[in-house]
């Protein structure tokens, strides 16, 4: 007698033959069971693959891979080898919303050489700073677990801990950080919003997010990689309840958010001593490497650029000669208050996305008076 076991499916066929025998031996029986179980497993795997393919027709390029794998980058962000004059910075980058790397700009600051762990502990060790757990940013978790501790305690443990610091520049070392020349006239210093120091031993990964203000990020130690995307893609993407794009930056689910497939992106490699200008509302995601110390400066978008502030003469024929930077401590930081800011900024900060009638009137007046300078 020949015993034949055949498992047939549309994608799987398997046949097992046994030598003539009057009865099934235990070994024959187990071989039959093994074939059957193998077929069942194949059915499960294939069914799952087919189900996934049905959702998105075909599995998109970059699915469940690192952010930026969904399509080739458009280009590297432009690099300037010198800090531009505020007039040129406004006309060529801030006004048209074009990111730019300012190569070596932070090397002009005292902070670049002074900010060792020992120096900062001596100058500001007693000041409390905010420490966040987990180098991969999780805004829900941070809201629950973020804590404050003396700066000296952070400096003692950050090299061996899964933590990072994110807070204002400690007051004892704030004078060492400089505002760059591109912000020293034209009205920027009247609209400074806040500063944030980011400090870790490297390996941090931010969420994909955007900010309602223009900002510059200066890397004083280590290196950062930026994924950047134009704000024109914002309407197509889904924000989480914590204000960031609802994706895992290490494994982007393109079936859950297929709109990401169309997002064009730029890359910026910001090395030690470099600064990056990020236009208002531009999407960005940041990864850090090595002992990583950086400072962000945010300011409300300028719709009225004060040209006369940048010239030595009333006829505006000779531009002011400006230093590479000026100490951050010389300027008043508004921290979100003290001026109207832009309509977009106020909408971004308002959970209800509403403004009062008076706020709209005030903002409209600002735009009308700014037309001459903005054209």
Q: What does this entry show, briefly?
A:
This protein has helices at residues 26-56, 86-94, 110-114, 117-124, 139-145, 151-157, 343-349, 357-374; strands at residues 4-8, 13-17, 75-76, 79-80, 100-102, 128-133, 147-150, 163-167, 178-180, 192-200, 214-229, 266-270, 275-278, 283-299, 325-327.
Helical run tally:
8
In the predicted model, the low-confidence regions spanning at least 5 consecutive residues are: 1-22, 39-56, 336-340, 349-353, 367-375
Compressed to H and E, one letter per element, the order equals EEHEEHEHHEHEHEEEEEEEEHH
Structural class: alpha+beta
> Which percent range describes the beta-strand content?
15-25%
Basic shape: globular
Radius of gyration: 28 Å
Helix content: 10-25%
**Average pLDDT score:** 82
β-strand number: 15
**Cα distance spanning the termini:** 94 Å
Main sheet makeup: 11 strands, mixed
């Amino acid at each position: 007698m020949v015993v034949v076991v055949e498992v047939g499916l549309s994608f799987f066929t398997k046949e097992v033959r046994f030598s003539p025998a009057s009865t099934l031996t235990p070994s024959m029986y187990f071989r039959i069971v093994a074939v059957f179980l193998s077929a069942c497993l194949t059915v499960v795997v294939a069914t799952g693959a087919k189900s996934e393919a049905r959702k998105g027709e075909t599995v998109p390029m970059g699915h469940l891979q690192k952010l930026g794998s969904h399509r080739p980058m458009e280009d590297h962000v432009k690099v300037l080898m010198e800090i531009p004059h505020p007039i040129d910075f406004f006309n060529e980058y801030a006004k048209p919303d074009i990111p730019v790397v300012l190569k070596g700009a932070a090397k002009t600051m005292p902070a670049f050489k002074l900010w060792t762990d020992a120096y900062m502990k001596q100058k500001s060790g007693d000041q409390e700073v905010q420490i966040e757990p987990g180098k991969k940013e999780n805004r829900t978790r941070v809201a629950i677990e973020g804590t404050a501790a003396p700066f000296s305690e952070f400096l003692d443990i950050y090299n061996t801990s899964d933590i990072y610091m994110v807070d204002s520049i400690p007051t004892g070392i704030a004078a060492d950080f400089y505002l760059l020349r591109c912000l020293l006239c034209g009205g920027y210093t009247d609209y400074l919003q806040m500063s944030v120091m980011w400090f870790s031993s490297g390996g941090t990964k931010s969420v994909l997010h955007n900010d309602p203000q223009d900002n510059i990020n200066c890397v004083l130690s280590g290196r950062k990689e930026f994924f950047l995307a134009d704000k024109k893609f914002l309407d197509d993407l889904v924000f989480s309840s914590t204000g960031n794009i609802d994706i895992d930056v290490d494994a982007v689910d393109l079936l859950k958010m297929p709109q990401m497939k169309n997002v064009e992106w730029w890359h910026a490699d910001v090395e030690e001593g470099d600064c990056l200008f990020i236009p208002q509302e531009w999407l960005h995601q940041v990864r850090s490497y090595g002992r990583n110390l950086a400072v962000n400066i945010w300011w409300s978008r300028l719709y009225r650029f004060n040209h006369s502030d940048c010239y030595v003469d009333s006829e505006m024929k000779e531009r002011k000669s400006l230093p590479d930077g000026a100490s951050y401590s010389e300027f008043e930081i508004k921290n979100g208050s003290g001026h109207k800011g832009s309509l977009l900024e106020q909408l971004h900060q308002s959970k209800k996305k509403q403004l009062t009638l008076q706020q709209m009137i005030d903002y409209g007046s600002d735009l009308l008076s700014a037309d001459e300078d903005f054209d």
